[in-house]
Design brief:
Elements (H helix, E strand, L loop, with lengths): L1 H15 L3 E4 L2 E5 L12 E5 L2 E4 L5 H9 L13 E4 L4 E4 L17 H10 L7 H9 L45 E7 L22 E4 L16 E3 L4 E2 L2 E2 L5
Parallel strand pairs: 5-10, 7-11
Antiparallel strand pairs: 1-4, 2-3, 5-6, 7-8, 8-9
Length: 247
């Protein structure tokens, strides 16, 4: 029975059209002394090898899961997708210029992202896995492309782009900073770094919010930093938040 289930998961994953890359295990200095208080203390963290989708899940990939009856529709048209105006969140219907089969799927809640990953035999990355992968093998970097400030040649600024539009990092992962924020598996806790495990930490056991990482198409340079931590309610969807899965 176990072999049948594993085979079924492999078949389902193959149908998504996703490409995964192998991330080697290793250690890295998680966090930053130059950012917010929740990025401290900086501590060496050990990560075991894992596989990660090279790109964020696209609208087309997510739609296949919806059409198969395994996922619920993204909130593009039902008025349940939020957008930050700079002062408040408003409910929006997503216009056509922010949609397309090769665009990252957005307007999905953490629960929907979790369910998609489960349905393709994967899961959301831990926050530590995400940060380690975003560095692309570098000892330190502010952004997935290096330390140069963001511009339109490096990440999507003010407009959503197709998944994989910009050069990959050292591990072959696209858009780890910029284009869309990415849901990860962890609950958010401000001082988690002060008491977390040093090997393969999986986040707090409970909380009100889930972590998002990487910054989106209307994020500023500080939010686009690899080490930046942010959070969002798992029951809400937002126009600049997507996800990718790991195995």
């Amino acid at each position: 029975m176990i072999m049948i289930i594993i085979f079924a998961d492999i078949q389902i994953f193959a149908q998504t059209g996703a490409n995964t890359v192998s991330i080697p295990g290793g250690t890295f200095a998680r966090g930053s002394n130059d950012g917010s208080a929740d990025e401290r203390p900086v501590r060496e963290i050990e990560i075991s090898p894992f596989g990660m989708m090279a790109k964020t899940v696209t609208e087309a990939q997510y739609k296949r899961c919806v059409d198969a009856g395994r996922c619920t529709p993204a909130h593009y048209d039902d008025g349940r997708c939020l957008q930050w105006t700079g002062t408040q969140f408003i409910n929006v219907t997503v216009p056509s210029q922010f949609r397309g089969p090769n665009f990252p799927v957005v307007c999905v809640t953490w629960l929907q992202a979790r369910d998609y990953c489960r349905n393709v035999g994967m899961r959301l990355p831990s926050e530590a896995q995400w940060e380690y992968a975003a560095l692309g093998g570098a000892k330190s970097a502010r952004y997935s492309w290096g330390n140069s400030p963001p511009d339109k040649s490096r990440c999507a600024l003010s407009s959503l782009h197709n998944a994989g539009s910009f050069a990959p990092n050292g591990y072959g992962l696209y858009d780890m900073t910029g284009n869309v924020w990415e849901w990860v598996g962890d609950f958010y806790e401000q001082d988690f770094y002060s008491f977390s495990e040093n090997k393969d930490p999986r986040g707090p056991n409970a909380g009100f919010y889930r972590v998002i990482r990487g910054g989106g198409f209307y994020s500023g340079p500080n939010e686009l930093r690899i080490q930046n931590r942010h959070w969002f309610s798992p029951n809400f969807a937002e126009v600049s938040v997507g996800f990718r899965c790991v195995r």
